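Handoff note, outgoing to incoming analyst
You'll be picking up this chain. Sequence as last confirmed:
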Amino acid sequence: MPLQRRPLPPPSVGRVLFPAKYDYPHFQGADKAPFAPNAGGFSRANAWWSAEASLLAYWKPAEIEAALEKAFAGNVAVQIFSGYNIEGYVASFDVFAIVAFRGTEATSPEDILTDVDVRKTDWKPGGRVHHGFFHAFSDAWKAMPPPRSPNLRTYFTGHSLGAAIATLVADTFVNGANRAQYGGVYTFGSPLVGDRAFVDGFNARHAGKSFRTVNDQDGVAVVPPRLVGFRHVDEEHFVGLDVRDAPRLEALIDHTPSRYSILCWNALVDEAN
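Most recent structure output, in case you need it:
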């Protein structure tokens, strides 16, 4: 039986700001669309898994563990981590691991201050990056445990603020001792992270391994503005084009993390069928 497309959730500001308040069947269909740890480029299956992992990062630690246990019947080791203004988890499977970072929590002053701190700071490999994202990255890098085995192909992902953190963590990982195990980074609704020098260096270091997904008119994907020197990393993939069920709030609704998951699933279905 071919894979089936899924309907989008109704447009809702609540689903954008408080995604974990809404029921969601995490990783439903993962057995029919397995992750491809050795993909030689962009993978629709890997994009969907990463979108699911990014969405799940908004849930509480016990709920994250329960959801992964339910979806994979114990065939995954979960390590939750947190810091001053970051949260995330490492999901280690047999031959690969996914590290997911939570996006902005609407009720967290620390997250809001991180997002709006648009000063630039030096990035060690080259260029300059968003000051707030840099400090969130620093917190994440200290708190993040390694996968259960150093031999696992490791992927990084996140939505919104989590996408920015995943970008900087991946760039640090690829320059570290375990760089041979670097699989790639998939982000969703990412803001612009750094300047042109940073982006040029990042794109060279992550050629064929960095995939940034944007849902149509997502308003977060255009901030901070290019006018003040920020640029996007490669490579860009669009989903949800011309889905205009809430035109007055399209820039906000298109940032909904559950919509990214479902749109990535539907793109996978369209490709498979």
